[in-house]
């Protein structure tokens, strides 16, 4: 087995462009002074690239996205048996055991990492936004993207650290709204309520939507900002606006703008026209074993058909067989697994039923949804896809008892080769969201938004947390202890209820 060295995400040679291709920045900074940022379009672009880089750091994007999935019903972590060591990656998130400070190694306290990188990215955006009126001409899209990236990070913090708006309402505990430049732990702002927090997020995405001119789907642009608005309005239970922006993000709902079956099964590593926003990891910026593909796949095989099988959702194999027949054996951790109860939700011809094999039934099925391009970690990651717009549209129509929602849902299902629904309901759309979006960070946010209980099928999960009531205070990470210690406008009451 290969030695698994975790590499830090490099900020050098980040292949992103801001205003235009002429502004390609090879060495993005993570901090520039207010005076420096005002000098040229190039320096403003450098700050923006720093915000993108921080947003994609493995200690934030990888940990956060996978945590939001393994804290749901359908995806689990291997318990470390059968030749696949977990190295404690994501085990504590899966088991709902997190601490505001490191108690048993860094892996037991993800909250400080998630918090720190999110607020550092927000701080980079604040440098641009606060000084927008002083920037030289030609930086309008840089400012729009800065609003979009700030909005995304605030929305991600909301999903990780807050109750759902649909449950707690305007007065629920929200975010620490840092809207001016400053260090992540130095801005002494109070914890806002959810109403104020969601308003800032909506305002940021609205600005990005109204002022963005970027066309590449590797950046915040008008189209993906519309989908992020639809996502946020759905989180708020504002179905009129959610539908409005879903229809902007996806001008058609006939299936023609969705991936083909072959594209869906190609390893989710290359942005295509359905991917409205993709994060691009290169050989310089990939986090190798700590990349998202690393946690999902086990390798490329010499005789794929004999491993994958042709019946059911996967064929039984052994660690020794894989070891002898894999071309790129153990190219990742391969510790994220699919439960059998979730696999049973897919029709046999569904292109999304990518569960090729298992070693032991109780350890769950491997999934081949994600892979890398050439070298481990070099892959695009989907931040927003048109399929989500279909699902938002269908849910909003279901809530109005509009039968057209069934046609929207069926168009998505038919494109994927899935079993089409015969009736329309919010629960039916939720089931389809689970099939379509697994592995993309929607599991826990949907449970919270829909006020569902956590219901894990008993023997399939080794976690001691098999069920939680709807709106459980455990369905969020603790506020990091350093925030409460050093922010002069915070108090013990700002800690999330379960973790006080």
Describe the structure.
Helix 2 (about 40-55) runs antiparallel to helix 5 (about 110-130), helix 2 packs parallel to helix 6 and helix 15 packs antiparallel against helix 16. The chain is built from 19 helices and ten strands. The chain is mainly alpha-helical and about 500 residues long. Helices cover about 40% and strands about 5% of the residues. The protein has a two-stranded antiparallel sheet. The protein has a two-stranded antiparallel ribbon with strand order 2-3. It has helices at about 35, 40-55, 60-70, 90-95, 110-130, 140-160, 165-170, 195-210, 220-235, 240-250, 260-265, 305-310, 320-325, 340-345, 385-400, 405-415, 425-435, 445-450, 480-485; strands at about 75, 175, 190-195, 275-280, 315, 335-340, 355-360, 380-385, 455, 465-470. About 50% of the residues are buried. Mean pLDDT is about 90; it is low at about 1-30. The longest helix has 22 residues, at about 140-160. The chain has two domains: about 20-70 and about 110-285 and about 385-455, Serine Threonine Protein Phosphatase 5, Tetratricopeptide repeat; about 295-365, no CATH class.
């Amino acid at each position: 087995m290969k030695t698994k060295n975790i590499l830090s995400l490099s900020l050098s040679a980040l292949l992103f462009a801001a205003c235009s291709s002429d502004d390609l920045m090879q060495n993005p900074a993570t901090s520039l002074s207010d005076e420096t940022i005002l000098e040229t379009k190039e320096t403003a672009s450098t700050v923006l690239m720093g915000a993108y880089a921080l947003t994609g750091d493995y200690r934030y994007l990888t940990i956060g996205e996978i945590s939001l999935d393994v804290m749901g019903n359908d995806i689990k972590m291997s318990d470390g048996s059968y030749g696949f060591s977990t190295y404690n990656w994501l085990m504590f998130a899966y088991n709902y055991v997190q601490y505001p400070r490191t108690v048993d190694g860094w892996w037991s306290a993800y909250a400080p990492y998630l918090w720190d990188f999110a607020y550092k990215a927000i701080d980079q955006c604040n440098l641009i936004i606060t000084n927008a009126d002083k920037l030289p001409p030609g930086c309008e899209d840089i400012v729009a993207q800065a609003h979009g990236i700030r909005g995304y990070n605030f929305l991600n913090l909301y999903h990780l650290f807050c109750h759902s708006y649909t449950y707690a309402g305007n007065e629920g505990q929200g975010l620490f709204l840092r809207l001016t430049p400053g260090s992540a732990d130095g801005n002494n702002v109070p914890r806002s309520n959810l109403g104020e927090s969601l308003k800032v997020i909506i305002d940021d995405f609205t600005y990005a939507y109204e002022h963005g001119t970027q066309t590449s789907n590797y950046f915040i642009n008008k189209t993906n900002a519309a989908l992020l608005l639809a996502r946020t309005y759905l989180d708020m239970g504002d179905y009129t606006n959610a539908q409005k922006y879903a229809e902007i993000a996806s001008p058609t709902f006939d299936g023609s703008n969705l991936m083909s079956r072959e594209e869906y099964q190609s390893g989710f590593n290359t942005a295509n026209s359905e991917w409205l926003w993709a994060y691009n990891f290169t050989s310089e910026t990939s986090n190798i074993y700590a990349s998202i593909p690393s946690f999902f796949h086990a390798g490329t095989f010499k005789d794929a058909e004999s491993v994958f099988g042709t019946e059911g959702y996967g064929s039984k194999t052994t660690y020794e067989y894989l070891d002898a027949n894999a071309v790129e054996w153990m190219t990742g951790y391969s510790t994220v697994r699919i439960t059998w109860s979730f696999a049973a939700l897919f029709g046999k011809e569904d292109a999304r039923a990518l569960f090729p094999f298992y070693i032991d039934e109780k350890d769950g099925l491997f999934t081949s949804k994600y892979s890398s391009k050439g070298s481990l970690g070099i892959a695009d990651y989907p931040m927003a896809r048109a399929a989500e717009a279909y699902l938002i549209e269908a849910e909003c129509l279901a809530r109005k008892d509009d039968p057209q929602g069934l046609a929207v849902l069926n168009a998505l299902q038919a494109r994927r080769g899935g079993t089409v629904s015969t009736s329309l309901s919010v629960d039916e759309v939720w089931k389809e969201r689970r099939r379509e979006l697994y592995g993309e960070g929607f599991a826990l946010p949907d449970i919270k938004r829909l006020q569902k209980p956590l219901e894990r099928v008993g023997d399939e999960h080794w976690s001691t947390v098999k069920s939680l009531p709807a709106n459980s205070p455990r369905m969020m990470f603790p506020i990091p202890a350093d925030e409460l210690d050093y922010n002069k406008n915070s108090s013990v009451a700002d800690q999330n209820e379960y973790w006080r």
